[in-house]
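Good day; I would like, with your permission, to put a structural problem before you. What I wish to show you is a protein chain and, alongside it, a tokenised description of its three-dimensional fold. Please examine both parts with care and let me know of anything in them that strikes you as inconsistent. Thank you for your consideration; the sequence and its tokens are set out here:

***
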Amino acid sequence: MFGGGGGTITHDDAVIMKRKGVDKVFFAGTSLEEMVRFVHQRYGKSRTKRPRPKSFDQELAHKLSEIEDAYAKGKRPTSKKKIRNSRGARVIGFTGPGGAGKTTLIDELVLRFLNRSPKGRIAILSHDPSVIGEGALLGDRATMINSQDDRVFMRSMATRGQAGGLSPATQDCLALLADSNLDYVIIETVGTGQEAMPFRKNGIVDQTVLVMNPDYGSRLQLQKIVMLDLADIVVVNKSDLQRARTAHTEIEQRLEQNRRSQQLIDTVAKRHRDPGVDKLFELISKQEVVGRDRRARRTKGSR
């Protein structure tokens, strides 16, 4: 374990924390480069023997690591489970350009889910880009405050050089999570480009959310973004910015060309109790109920 105090942890506190098992405390003024170098040097080498899992979440984490390790060695796992389970966990994919606010938006949605479902469980597969030869800085969890809850299972994954926003092991990891007694599974891609279609494979997600910010450039740029054709919900985050109204109008006109049912929502994810985030959560929750009813009817009809 390692931690940063932000100026609130004293040197005396650090001594006590190290006695309790914290390996390192980064004090105010420590550069990100120093932190990354320490983590790489101390934890960069894979352990030959993993400790026996003490909880369900630890066991799940170890199984996901086994899947990732297999792909890293060029050996794809033989098991091919379908991405569905008996409880009907809903799989939602979030994608969009870097800096659009995907992580903050997901964290706010998680807070609403935890408040509405006191016994519900949710998993997050968060992807970060890999730098060749240097691994990936799995930093999304650093900005997720509400997701640091015992009912939230979060897994950071490196793309390992694969284009498109996901890891080569994503689909198999998702199949495992879908069979792990969860209510929701959220996938967050890395920041994607105009041609990216991370969820193009049928069945990998139940619903796709494209998160954009108002500063995407000219109206012509919208014609090049493939995910605007595929997304079920398009979110214009940071809608408190000056260009937000124009962006909403231009994106709305772009979606009308698709002639299909797509939702457009404005949000300010960083704002506490943002009405736009509330609307997005209600829309996702409503679709979850509809999907559950459809699955129930299919199950009943097959008997």
Notes: The chain has two domains: 1-45, 90-302.
